[in-house]
Amino acid sequence: MSVSTHSVIRPFALAALFAATLSACGKQETPAPSPAPAPAAAPAAAGATPSTPAPAATSSDSSADKAAEGQPLKIAFAYIGPVGDGGWTFSHDNGRKAMIDALGDKVQTKFVESVPESADAERVLRGFAAEGNDIVFGTTFGYMDYMDRLSKEFPNVKFEHATGYKNGSNLATYDSRTYEGAYLAGIIAGGMTQSDVVGVVGSVPIPEVIRNINSFTLGAQSVNPNVTTKVVWVNDWFNPPKETEAATSLINSGADVLFQNTDSAAVLKTAQDQGKRAFGWNSDMTAYGPNAHLASAIIDWSPYYTKIAQDAIDGKWAAGKSWWGVKEGAIDIVSLADDIPQDLKDKVAQAKQGLQDGTLKIWEGPILKQDGTEALAAGQVADDPFLLGLQFYVKGVEGKMPGAN
């Protein structure tokens, strides 16, 4: 898985690390059974899954010219997971549907789900380009090199890559500030924990996920300075059995409120089964554990997808770098539990307003690292390169980071 955009500068020194660990939410190497009922497949014009790539590439008119002639803008999506995963891919597909609702017959979409980050991805993406789609969205980091290559081969196609850092004249990148949703969830966790111990099921130890763990901790400590955070890593994006095991381990270690940076609802389900509390992630997961559910930190991709499609129709599309958050309507905290005290709900609302109007800076000093050394001095505000390269735990997060000496 808001309109002014924020320029994202990913340091190229991180490229090897990101490529090795497959950065960004929602990645999986092989399709897994869906934990949620998959939304009904739309008809071909609105998103049917193609079976085979189209033949050879042909040049196409510009998107604006096609719109002027009354032809719909053709848009294709490659998804890393199943649309019914209840999380990352589900939120992207909801964004696609919202774009259709907003633009109607001006757009024609299709998608392929559960496309692994392998040569299969290149086959699917090449098929999209070859059959004349005007815009191709790839929704996982592992598609980056394929899209970079294909963008040079198909200069008339607009490629949009989620969570990557490579750009070209017809290759744009986009991402969401998930750490803002993590911070808002942290405020609730800090006010609801009885043990002062919260737990996080981490996916892959890359800056994006570390940033979310730290921001969740900072949010919790903003209302309860005594909070400590335990982390269990599963080294996967979508693996319900591993996520369940990790959540159980955290509960056995004293955590009574759980958070996650993984894509299934397994953590919330485990909390429900064991009488603890937890959050949804990427989309509203209330239904998976209504008694355990405190709130869901969601990504809403619809503002971005709708804007990009409209820009292409208007002839205004440009290959930029976008990182959207609460301010742009891309990140939110929803479905707050009824038993959350009103004063705590008010604190969440105030923080959300602060993120919307820019008065709240989550990463403003003084902030200490886990070892007590200074990460940000008093009054110092982290810029995007700092956040994008984050490789440390803040004070209050327990345990050793994977790969640390």
UniProtKB/TrEMBL annotation:
<feature type="region of interest" description="Disordered">
    <location>
        <begin position="27"/>
        <end position="65"/>
    </location>
</feature>
<protein>
    <submittedName>
        <fullName>BMP family ABC transporter substrate-binding protein</fullName>
    </submittedName>
</protein>
<feature type="signal peptide">
    <location>
        <begin position="1"/>
        <end position="26"/>
    </location>
</feature>
<dbReference type="GO" id="GO:0005886">
    <property type="term" value="C:plasma membrane"/>
</dbReference>
<dbReference type="InterPro" id="IPR052910">
    <property type="entry name" value="ABC-Purine-Binding"/>
</dbReference>
<feature type="compositionally biased region" description="Low complexity">
    <location>
        <begin position="41"/>
        <end position="62"/>
    </location>
</feature>
<dbReference type="InterPro" id="IPR003760">
    <property type="entry name" value="PnrA-like"/>
</dbReference>
<keyword id="KW-0732">Signal</keyword>
<feature type="domain" description="ABC transporter substrate-binding protein PnrA-like">
    <location>
        <begin position="74"/>
        <end position="345"/>
    </location>
</feature>
<dbReference type="Pfam" id="PF02608">
    <property type="entry name" value="Bmp"/>
</dbReference>
